[in-house]
Amino acid sequence: MMSSTKLSSNKKLRRIMKLKIVLFMVLSTSLAFSQTFKTVQIDSEILDKTREIQIFLPKGYASSIKEYPTLYVLDGQQYFYYGVGFQQAFNWRDRAPEFIVVGINTTNWSQRRIDFKSKKYELKFRNFIAHEVFKYVNQNYRTNNDRMVFGWEDTGDFILHTLVDKPELFSAYFVASANKWNRGILDQFTSKSFKQEKYLYFGLSASETWSTRNFNAFSKALKEKTPNNLTWESNALLNEDHWSTPYQIIYNGIKNYYKSYVPLKFSSYKAYKDAGGYQYVVDFYKKYGQKYGVSSDIHFRTKINLLRIAMRADEYKEFTFLIAELDYFLIDYIRDFRYVNYGEFYLKHGNTAAAFKLLQKGIKDYAWSARVLNCSGDVYKAMGDFKNARLMYQKAIKLTKEYSQGSLKKYQQNLSSVQN
Predict the structure, then answer these.
(1) What is the pTM of this model?
(2) What CA–CA distance (Å, rounded) separates 104 from 80?
(3) How far from 137 is each of 69, 77, 85, 371, CA to CA, in Å?
(4) Most C-beta atoms within 10 A of its C-beta, which of 37, 94, 115, 226?
(5) Which domains does the chain have, with CATH numbers?
(6) Element spanning 143, H or E
């Protein structure tokens, strides 16, 4: 007879499994409606068998004509959705461009051992990717020459060998938990000179003791003699194990590879001027647009940064120049507190006309924002229009009480300052 404790445990387990299934269905449904997923069977003449690949097209693909980078994920049946998830997360926060994700699925574990345990089969699989997978993807989708690849364990060894033997296949190589960090690979790497720029990111967990010595030797050798045109980084993943390293390697690989995609940002006004000021920013985004196939317009996050550092340095002349040059309020999404910040800066320097014009737009965009209405009251007060100042402060107080927006005491004090 089964104990009540065991029954309870089984019920909990079933509930957890049901929850996981529901979450997976919700995620799959939401993704399917917003992006394009496809599974394709490739009848490979090179491998003499049918192999399955998965393809993900990013959100902007259908509405654009541009060409896209591609991330190829080996063992796609396990790690394809890591690539998809990171593509969405990074692009949302402007950490990486949109890219296509292609998962090359493993038929079964025995076949995987065959494909990646001998030079003969490695060569066949590499030719399968180069001549059949690339052919299908490039003929059916708009791709550029920026190709990334990820491999774990045996497939990690495979892409390390690919970087040595056929480096032109990919631009960036992400390697997790490779086993063969051997002397042969080491010597080939350190004597290599790549014709084009390549990026390598590799890592190993602390628990993978069977590979630690070779991993350390490989890292040391690259530090002592880095091949021409190779940028590389490694990571000892202290809180991971053999099975969890792929998550970190794909994440860090994409993040580090696209480090230069992140919008330009200056730590201070001095840093901005030392770099060359506004002309430097314009030139930067011209190159940025050419490199990534995107607009050469200055990114709105950079615009925010430039205005912020100008205000912090109290550089009013530069601030007004930037406002005029950037068309900031015409084309970009502006948060309500930025209207307040810029309006107060105008008032600080006595430009009530500019502050008034700005806050009128702010009220139109954010009629619900107590702080925008309060700042508008400040503008009217500076103009000597106490009647409209009182009206704005009263509205700010009402909204604050209704929606708990904060700063009630401040708004009440402002209202008192313009009472008859």
Answers:
(1) 0.81
(2) 8
(3) 11, 18, 20, 52
(4) 115
(5) 10-261 (3.40.50.1820), 280-416 (1.25.40.10)
(6) strand 143-152
